[in-house]
Amino acid sequence: MNTLTRTPGQAVLPARSRCTAVLRRALWWTVLSLTGGVERRGRLPGGGCVVVANHSSHADTAALLAALDARHGPAIGAAADYWFASPWRRRICRRLAAGFPVRRGGGGMDDLLSMAGELREGRAVVLFPEGTRTRDGELGSFHRGALVLAEEAGVPVVPVGIAGTDRLLPKHGRLRSSLVRVTVGEPLPSAVTPEQARDAVLALQSRTATEPLRDSATRRRVAAVVTSRWGLPLAFCWAFAEALSWPLMPELLLGAVCVAAPRAALKMSLGALAGSLAGGLLALQLASAGIQLPAPLTTDRMRAEVRHELALEGAPAVRHQPWNG
To answer: Which residue intervals of the chain are DSSP H helices?
Structure first.
């Protein structure tokens, strides 16, 4: 008889969670490849760990999700008063960033300690101990919460240095092209002090930031295609197919393509809009004639959520469309 065994601390995520983590990593790796590339140096240890990293940009989360192994099922601590203050931000944070809320005005320690069980099962919990994005580019003081959580769960603290995200998406700035580099350091004992953890992250950040950030070959190839005579028809046909049957061109990836080739942004956006409208009109005509095209990537859960939202709100429910998957 076959039995399933595992070593203590080794992550054994449910199949659905494992698949979601793999897809999430693939998504952000693709997006960052289009916006300049992403590199990782070092690996997380086996089993659960608390990752502590510097925080200068909203793109830090994307960089970590693209770089860290999906087998750890990384969960990202996010400010509850910002990312969970509105329905659309909450959906973005949970579905695209594997985020969980951490209160900043009291109760935050309880939020962190609620993840101790996940750590013991082998997951990685990612936290930004500064508590907010840096205002001046300097690494701020670390709060103790991440270290208390690691000690409670009996797992190591892993310092990580991130470079390039402040160029990619500056605080209060606009998205632009830049390579992102993530450097994973050696595990620290769970009883480490905030000052020791900060010093470890600062050393990684400083070393990573001083190295040149070269351009991504993937970004150059994508830019060459979208600025060629094939860019506009490709955007139109892709959006046309998406409107009919296949969710092939999410707005997130279209935005990344536009960052890869800013000169082609307007052309690609208009081409995608025209293709989406044309595909939608054709789909409406086909439905009126009783013809239903196959939609293999549209799940029963998506359809059920759409029916529920339409029953509650009617036509205005269309605003939920990007999140019903």
So the answer is: 15-34, 59-67, 80-83, 87-91, 97, 108-113, 116-120, 145-153, 165-168, 194-210, 217-226, 231-244, 251-260, 265-288, 300-313
